[in-house]
Amino acid sequence: MRCSVFVVALAVGLSASSPLQAIEKRQAVDDTTVLNFALTLEHLENAFYQQALAKFDQQAFLDAGLPEFARGRFEQVAAHEATHVQFLSTALGNNATQPCTYNFPYTDPKSFAALSQVLEGVGVSAYTGAAQLITNKQYLTAAASILATEARHASWVASAVNKFAGWSGAFDVPLDLNEVFTLAAAFITSCPSTNPTLPVKAYPALKIGNPVPGQNSHFSSQSSTGPTFIAFFTGLDTIFVAVKDGAVEIPKDLSGQVYALGTTSGTAATPDTIVSGPAVLLFERNSSNALISSGQAN
């Protein structure tokens, strides 16, 4: 994988590396832990779809301007997520984590579909990042099968429903357990006290205002330690951009679903250097690769 350092005007520096290097195996993370982590996400997705479909009928989907087939397909996606929950719960038996209470910020079928695209993308990144932590080959194969289905969901929602590209590029982003948990925690209001404790932590929030590739964007970080770099996870690359006067220059070639994290390092985004994020950034491009929309999704 290519690693490079770019120099940007006014001493704003970029460097590229791989987020795979930041996903470290820990002795406390065994297969049961990884499966329970996956089940935690599947419970969230299952609740997300079940609640939205109970709230919005076919007419609501049509009134929102979504395709006539959209709700029926979302019912199928919901059934897949319920099956994933059942499969993982059966595999874990008495060790299986139970569903939490959730709060999802959609207000209509259109905002539900937009959030669905993001959540499915996060699910793909979660399974991709966790794959190297699984030691049992049968579990790994099952996780790969679920990953493939989550990727199909993400692609369908993005292209058929939201009319964007069904991919972000040649590679998806692998996220580690802390990064995924941070994103999931935003929707969780409470969990059963009997649930197994996962060896994860949530990072403080990172907000990037009006992110447009090639332009400076001001940001806010809720961490007590201010970031000196923003790391952009795109595919298998990480691009580090130095912070200057509370702003960061968005790399010009970003596309699709990208994750941004505040760090204290310009070469590594690890639990020791990450101070905030991830922020989920969407850079949607048309078939000519022209930018048609951009923004932060969380």
From TrEMBL:
Residue spans crossing the bilayer: none
Endpoints of the signal sequence: 1-22
Keywords, alphabetical: Signal
CDD domains the record matches: Ferritin_like
Pfam families, sorted: Ferritin_2
UniProt keyword tRNA-binding present: no
Keyword match Signal: yes
PANTHER family for the chain: PROTEIN RDS1
Name of the protein in question: Ferritin-like domain-containing protein
Organism: Hypholoma sublateritium (strain FD-334 SS-4)
